[in-house]
Amino acid sequence: MPSDVVMPKLGLNMTEGLLVEWLKKEGDPVKKGDLLFSVETDKITTEAEANVDGMLAKILVAAGETVPVRTVVGLITAPGETLAAEPVNLTARVAPAEIPAEKPAETVAAPASSQPRGTVLASPIAKRMAAEKGIDLAMVKGTGPDGRISLEDVERALAEGATAGAEKPAESLGVKIEGVRAVIAERMLASSQNTAQVTLHLETDVSAMVAYRQKLKTAAVQHVPSFNAILASVTAQALKEFPYMNAVQEGNVIKFLEKVNVGLAVDTDAGLVVVVVPDTERKDPQAVQAELTPLIERALARKSQPDDLSGGTFTITNLGGFGVEGFTPIINPPEMAILGVGRIIEKLVILDGKVAQRSMMTLSLTFDHRLVDGAPAARFLQAVAEKLAALA
Amino acid sequence: MRQLFYNQALGEALAEEMRRDKTVTLWGIDIGPYGGANGVTKGLWEEFGEARVIDTPVAELGYVGMGVGAAATGIRPVIELQFSDWITLPMEMIVNQAAKMRYMFGGILEMPLVIRAPIGGYLNAGAQHSNSFESWFAFVPGIKVVVPSTPYDAKGLLKTAIRDNNTVIFFEHKKLYGIKGEVPEEEYTIPFGEAAIRREGKDVTIVTYAYQTLRTLSVAEKLAKAGIDAEVIDLRTVKPMDETRILESVKKTHHLVVAQEIWKTCSVSSEVAALVAEQALDYLDGPIVRVTAKEAPVPFSPSLEEEVLPKEQDIYDAVLKTLGR
């Protein structure tokens, strides 16, 4: 029977995908792992691979069409197999759902003996000792009958430092890199490899911002803005003034973007997502907050809509809540800069020749040095700081 | 210290207990002037007279049954079976009467009955004279089972058996009557349920009893020459069994061999293996290996008997197997 080629589900929130281009033609031989077609989602563009050897016998969904995930877009026949012999429905259909993606990942380890996976032969005390010491028995060579691992084998492995992390938990269960994690992994690696990132740190006086927020809080206005909402609004103003920081590279052109859509990094159970407030520069902190609240709620509930996460032109990431002072954020491509926000800390500073207690905060701006130089980036950062100081 | 033969040590235990307690009486075939088929009761008829050393007809059901009745009325009979093989005949008396009376009559009587019975093969005595039925009796609640391997144990355990108010089956291996060992002249008894560590070792625990203890100790010396340090545990009483000593030893050596003379299925070795599997599995570093007779009647032919009953080499190989060598 021919194997289905389906629209892959590339992320937790992906419901449909655009079949951009077929990389194989009908009749082409394919091998497992060959790239079959490119697919684009709101988050990512990638290629789908063949999962069997054979021949791409039939294309059911043409390039340019957007179809739900798991839709059968083509058929691969085994060598020697012909489609005519099989009464298959050649119209597009949806393949049965796979087992949910959240099954626990298995321990990944190469068996040391010839035993098949999952049946490492070891004596009871060897198993107990390995569990206590955090040794993966699959990494221990058994010297007993049929390669059985004895207590002595475990002790030898321990002596040879089988595990550097003797403290590691007994069950070394891992988590499969898939879904949001896979998207983050790919994008962060691409960001590191394809851009020239520089981070500037600026400690700035945010007493005015603290007072501004307190004032609104006391006034009990609607949508009292969080510091993140204030920062997003203020940064958006600065981005409007410094368009070279709100840009993308397109071929050999640095394209300044019309819109300023500031994204905010949100830590969820499934991993990092960036929720986007469109046209941020037109919104004051309260208006930004009004939009951020539902965006963040949906993200935490893992119910983000496609628009919640798309269209960002600049990202803010705040680790101040964890006591972090400054850090080197990684750019969220295709954006060309990201602003890291540290904690607000009360410090004694010299102000007008006098010691004063001020609320201080470190801003960490990472930018792509391919597209902008250090001084212009610093000017932008300085502008953000000045706008924060001018809040009233 | 004074050396005594195993049968002499048993006879001394009987004499001492008979002097100590006038209710102790001996019943059996040829135990009077003849002194018993294995010489255990030599001299007792002369000292205690025919009222307390009673020669019985060749009728096991009858004289064991009488013994049960006597025990229920306050006598302490010590009955000698000429061969334990005939214990099949008074089985009803032992298993359904002696073992249960105290329980069924609400504790109004005691059952201070001892049945001494020679067991074992390696004597070319044929299938009906080479049995070892200790597991049958260990199976039944209300019966204690003793299997001494040395003259010292034989005397100390027999004295304890006679003083016990429950049915005790006292199995004496025929190959042991002629062995000599130290037996002090002073009074002593050995409590039930205390195994003896005959040889301390760290590499493997061999649990055994009765005649196999001697054979196992001989194997342990050969193992020592091969660099394997075996610990040999002699159960002394199959029931009660010294679980603590077995488990402690296995927790130390991580390997268990059980060596017994007779058949494997539902035997003492099954019980020891199950005990360790249930309570010390996480300490085992190799499979439990049992050394037993092959499942066939013990042949008369010497060359065939040698094949059916366990050989010393079998114990040696069992140790190598559990150690994975």
Explain what the structure shows.
The complex is a heterodimer of chains A (392) and B (325). Chain A has 392 residues and is of the alpha+beta class. Chain A folds into 3 domains: 3-94, RNA polymerase II/Efflux pump adaptor protein, barrel-sandwich hybrid domain (OB fold (Dihydrolipoamide Acetyltransferase, E2P)), CATH 2.40.50.100; 106-174, E3-binding domain (Dihydrolipoamide Transferase), CATH 4.10.320.10; 179-389, Chloramphenicol acetyltransferase-like domain (Chloramphenicol Acetyltransferase, 2-Layer Sandwich), CATH 3.30.559. Helices cover 24% and strands 28% of the residues of chain A. Chain A has 7 helices and 17 strands. Chain A has helices spanning 124-133, 151-159, 179-194, 207-218, 227-241, 285-300, 374-389, and strands at residues 3-6, 16-22, 29-30, 35-40, 45-49, 54-59, 66-68, 71-77, 93-94, 197-205, 247-250, 253-256, 262-268, 271-277, 314-318, 337-351, 354-368. The model of chain A is unreliable at 98-117 and 164-170 (pLDDT under 50). By secondary structure, chain B is of the alpha/beta class. Chain B has 2 domains: 3-182, Rossmann fold; 196-323, Rossmann fold, CATH 3.40.50.920. In chain B, α1 (6-20) runs parallel beside α6 (151-163) and α8 packs across α9. The N and C termini of chain B lie far apart (41 Å). The chains are: A alpha+beta (392), B alpha/beta (325). The interface between A and B is small, with 13 and 8 residues.
